[in-house]
Request: fold
Amino acid sequence: MSQKLQVAVAGAHGRMGTVARQALVEGGEYCCGLSHTAESPSRIFTTLDELWRCSPAVLLDLTTQPGSYEISLAAVKRGIPTVIGVSGWTDEQRAELDAMAKERGVGALIVPNFSVGAMLMMRFAQEAARFFGEAEIVEIHHPAKKDKPSGTSRETARRIEAASGSAPAIHSLRLTGSLAHQEVIFGGPGELLTIRHDSLSRESFVAGMMKAVHAVVRLRGLSIGLESI
Amino acid sequence: MSQKLQVAVAGAHGRMGTVARQALVEGGEYCCGLSHTAESPSRIFTTLDELWRCSPAVLLDLTTQPGSYEISLAAVKRGIPTVIGVSGWTDEQRAELDAMAKERGVGALIVPNFSVGAMLMMRFAQEAARFFGEAEIVEIHHPAKKDKPSGTSRETARRIEAASGSAPAIHSLRLTGSLAHQEVIFGGPGELLTIRHDSLSRESFVAGMMKAVHAVVRLRGLSIGLESI
Amino acid sequence: MSQKLQVAVAGAHGRMGTVARQALVEGGEYCCGLSHTAESPSRIFTTLDELWRCSPAVLLDLTTQPGSYEISLAAVKRGIPTVIGVSGWTDEQRAELDAMAKERGVGALIVPNFSVGAMLMMRFAQEAARFFGEAEIVEIHHPAKKDKPSGTSRETARRIEAASGSAPAIHSLRLTGSLAHQEVIFGGPGELLTIRHDSLSRESFVAGMMKAVHAVVRLRGLSIGLESI
Amino acid sequence: MSQKLQVAVAGAHGRMGTVARQALVEGGEYCCGLSHTAESPSRIFTTLDELWRCSPAVLLDLTTQPGSYEISLAAVKRGIPTVIGVSGWTDEQRAELDAMAKERGVGALIVPNFSVGAMLMMRFAQEAARFFGEAEIVEIHHPAKKDKPSGTSRETARRIEAASGSAPAIHSLRLTGSLAHQEVIFGGPGELLTIRHDSLSRESFVAGMMKAVHAVVRLRGLSIGLESI
Reply:
C-alpha cells in the first residue's frame, strides 16, 4: 500500500460502508461518500454530481442493486477505477461494464466477498465439487441478519452446481452469539470433506477491501474476485 | 456381566435385531427370535407362542409400533423382564406397562437410544436448554437412512422444547460417507455451546444393549433410559 | 435485576476489570475501583482504605493471587458481600472465607468462569467423564493470550481427572483471528462425544458477572460457581 | 474400469495389502501377492522371482521403506506399470524411478494417499498456506494406530511449510471410537479457515486404489498423486 489514494464510498451509511469509511479515514484515504441522506462533516452527499466534484481516485461501491449497476457504470464512464462489493450483476451488465472499462482504459473489479477465507472457501468448494457427487451447506449467522440464506452461501451453491451439475441444499441457522460461519460438507464413499469459514471480526474483510482498492488502479477492463489480484 | 442369560430378540431380522442376535450369539446368551419370517437354524419364529416355549430369561424388543406395545406387554404379563428399544410409547401405554410390571414383580426398561454418547447428548441438551433461549439441531446420516429427521433428533428436540418452551429447528443432511452424527448448537449473548455425537460403529450401541439386558433382571416396574441403570 | 447496587471493582485496570467497570457504569452501578495506579475521574484508588470509604454494597474481585485472598477476606470481614472471579484459592483459604462470611452473615461467591456456556461445558465434561474412559481437550485462543494452556482448560482437565481418575491431554492452539474456543472430546467403543464452547464477545461473561453481583447479596457463607445461584 | 487387469500386491499381509487383495479378488483382478510369509491358497510368495512368474499386468506396492524402493524399481525395470502407496522416496530415488520408467516405456505412480478427500485436503491446505500466515493441524485416530503424528499430517505439514515458509504444529489425539480424522486450521486477521477430512471406512481408499491401478497402464514415466490422473 505504497501510494495514498482518495477513495469515494457509495453506500456510505450501510453496514459495510460505515466500516469502510472508518478504515479509510484511519488510513488517510477517505475522500467522500454517497448515501440517501447527506452528512456534512463526513462529506457524504446524495447525488453523483456532488461525488464527482471531490475528484475521487477510486470508487468503492458498497450499495445494492439496482443502484450498483448505475453508479459503477457512471464512475467507469468518467474514467474512475471502481471496486464493486455488490452481487446481482447479470452477464449482460458485466459485459457492458467490461467494454466501458476497456474503452476508458481503467479497471473495474467485482468482489463477491472481501474476506480471503471466504474467497478460498468458495474456490475450494468449487474444486471439491468436481470430485464429490454430494454436498450440503450449513451457514450460521446472527438472528439480526436480513437475508436468509446468506449471499455467500448462495454464491457457494451456485459454484458447486456449476462444477458438479447438482445444487447443494443450504441450511440456515440463526443464533444469538454467532457471528458469520459457513460449512460446506462433501460426501463420497467412506469419507467426508468439510470446508469451514468463521468470520469473527470486521478485520477479515477490511484487509481485502484495502487490497482491492489499491489493486484496481493497475487493472484494465473487468476482473472478478480477490483471487484475480 | 456375571451371569449368562437366555435372551429372546423380537424384531430379529431388523437392522438392530440382526446386530443384537450376533452379539448375543457371540456371548453365549442368544435364546431365540421373533420375526415375520421363520429361520430354523437361528431359531426365529413367527408367533409369540413359539417364542415363549423357549423360556427366555429376558425379552429384547427391537420391533416397531404398534407391535412393540403388544409384544412387550405380553412378555411382562408372563413375568419376563423386558428391554424395549422402540420409541412411540404413549403416556397411557407406559402407565399400563408400569402397572403390569409391578404386579408381576419384574422390570421393564424403555431405552430410546442404547448409545451412552447419544444418551448424554440428549441429557446435556435438555439441561443446556434451561440456560439458553435458542437452539438448532443438525443431524447427518447416510442417504439410505429411512426416517428424516432422525428419531434421535426428534427426541432431542422434544426434550429441548420441554425444558425451554421453544422447539428447535432440525436440519437433516444426507451424505454418502457419513455414519450417524448429530450436533445441537445453543446460542446466547456472545457465545455458542455445541454438543456433538458421532456414532462410528455398531459397538456404540451393542455395549449399552448388553448392559440393559443384564440390568433389567434386577429392576421392578418401568424405568426409562440407560441413565436409570 | 431489580435494585441498583453500588459495586466496587478490585483489579480495575485489568482486562476483565475494564470490561466490568464499563458495564457497571452503563448500568448505573459503578462505585469505585482498586488498582496499582490511581485514576481520578474513574474513582480508582490504590489502597483498600480508600475503597472502603466509598461504602460499596458489593465487591467484585477481579485481581490475581495472592492479592485476591487478602482483598476478598478483608471485604467479607467488613461485612461486604463479595464476588470473586479469581482461581487459585486453596481448600484452607476457602474454609477460612466460608467461616468469616458465615460469622459476618454475608455471602461470598467464587466464580471460576462467568460465562454460562463455559460453566455448562465444564459441568457436562465432568459428568461425561464418569461414562467415558478417554478424553482430550483442544483449546484455541488468540496468540496474544498470556497463559498456555488456558485457565478454563486446566480447570476442565482437573474436573475430568476428579471424575474419571485419568487426566486428559490439553492441546493449545494459538491462531490470529480466533477468539476463545474450547472443545472436549470423549472417546468410547464406536463413538465420540464432543462438547464445544465458543466465546465470541465480552457479552458472554458480562451477563454472568451482573447476575453474580446481584445474587451474592442474598447468599450466606461461601458458594462456588454460577450454577449455585 | 473397462478392461480387467491382473494385479500383484506387494505387502500382501499388511493392513492396506489385505484390504487391496480383498477388493481385487472381488473385482476378479487379483493375480498374486508378496509378503514375508507365503500363503498358498491366496498365492502369496516370499520372493520377487515367484511374483514375476505370475506375469502381473500391474504391481501395487503397499510395502514400507527401504523395501518399496527396491521392489518398485525392479518391477518397472521388467516393464511392469507400478502403483506405489508408500511414502519416503527421496528425490534421487524418484529421479531414478522416472528415468527407468521412461526407458522401459511404462508408468510409475506414487500416491501418498489413495483417498480423494485426503488428497484434496492436502492440496487445499497447501493453497491456503499462501494466503494465511498461521496454521495448526489436529489429527484424531484410534489408539491402536502405530505412528504419531500420522503420515498424512506430516505430509500436510511439509506442504504448508513449503508454501508459507513456516511449519505448523501438529496435535495428535488418540481416542477409542475414532477412525481417521484430520483438521487443518488457518488463522488470519478476523477469520479462521478450516479444512477437515473424516475417513470413515476403507471404501474411501479402495476407490482411489482401483482408479490408480487402471490409470497407471496409460502413463509413461513417474507421476505423483491421485490428482495427476
